[in-house]
Amino acid sequence: MSRIALYLQDSHDLRDGLDYVRYAEEKGFEAVWQAESRLVRDAIVPMAAYAAVTERIKVGSGVINNWTRNIGLLAATFLTLDDLAPNRVICGIGAWWDPLARNVGIERRKPLTAMRETVIVLRRLLNMERVTFEGEFIHVNEIELDVVHGRREPRHVPIMIGATGDQMMELTGEIADGAVLNYCVPPEYNDRALELLDKGARKAGRALEDLDRPQLIVCSVDHDHDRAIETTKMLLCQYLAQQPHIAKASGVSDEVVHEIQSILGWPATKEQINRAKHLVPDELVHRITASGTPEEARAKVQEYIKRGCTCPILYSAGGNVKLLIETFAQS
């Protein structure tokens, strides 16, 4: 396990996150990825904070969406982050999900076309080109990143797509630097994902080996096995209800999802989560997460690596984050 990364969401104080990232860097972690999903924390502010208090660790968005930031602002944002942490920034981007997108007034039509245009124009802007592009979603005329003070050379910011559906996975293989593989899925999910990435890569004259394949993995580590499983159930019941695309990819039955949804509100309260968590089967926790004792968690993560994950991105389900970091320490 030569590469390992940390994933941070919103289950901790933001300043505690700075401590976790510094500790992960000390323990040899390659990267930290910041979530941006529900209407809670955006990714960019924490990413800047992580970059400012570290020296080596890479900082990625895991993942932002391609609908809510104008392409010029998106490019300028990652230029700014690269100014703060040269060659340490990763742009993880995804197509977002309903009902959240719909509830804030965004119609996610033709997601493949929209993503293709975003990646093409973003890459050209970060390459410091002057860009004119007339697409279906992006319309820009003679724009470029306006660097007066600072580095004018092209920026190396890998663009990684957080793909879920088959067509988006294939597109990722064709146009992106890699894929942020999904979480809450069993290791064998990767077999199909790798086939699709390879198919897309071949369209662009590339091979699967040319694509990085970090993967989000829900991970709850505790010296008490049962306590680790209980912690994960609290997270799973919320995500299976609120992100149906993850439930589908996980193979969770509609009956279980609907029953959890009938209990959880939006946003879900701790009381509702505690009422619903018993609906998550133990078997599901073991199948789609790396939860349990340190030894059990390490063994499960190895299963994802054997199925093509190049860098596990460990998403702490809660509990002792420092123990998780120590469990997977590289130094």
Describe it.
The chain is of the alpha/beta class and 331 residues long. It is 45% helix and 15% strand. The protein is built from 14 helices and 12 strands. Strands 1, 2, 3, 4, 5, 8, 9, 10, 11 and 12 form a 10-stranded parallel sheet that branches. Helix 1 links the parallel strand 1 (5-8) and strand 2. The longest helix has 18 residues, at 225-242. The mean pLDDT is 93.
What percentage of the residues does DSSP assign to strands (E)? 15-25%
Cα radius of gyration in angstroms: 19 Å
Biggest pleated-sheet summary: 10 strands, parallel
Q: What is the helix/strand order? A: EHEHEEHEHHEEEHEHEHHHHHEHEH
Mean pLDDT: 93
Structural class category: alpha/beta
Helical amount: 40-55%
Shape: globular
Gap between N and C termini: 12 Å
Can you count the beta strands? Answer: 12
Low-confidence stretches: none
Topology:
Blueprint: E1 5-8, H1 14-26, E2 31-34, H2 44-52, E3 58-61, E4 64-65, H3 71-84, E5 89-94, H4 100-103, H5 111-126, E6 131-134, E7 139-143, E8 159-161, H6 166-175, E9 178-179, H7 189-203, E10 214-221, H8 225-242, H9 244-250, H10 254-263, H11 270-276, H12 282-288, E11 290-292, H13 294-306, E12 311-316, H14 321-327
Parallel strand pairs: 1-2, 1-12, 2-3, 3-5, 4-5, 5-8, 8-9, 10-11, 10-12
Antiparallel strand pairs: 6-7
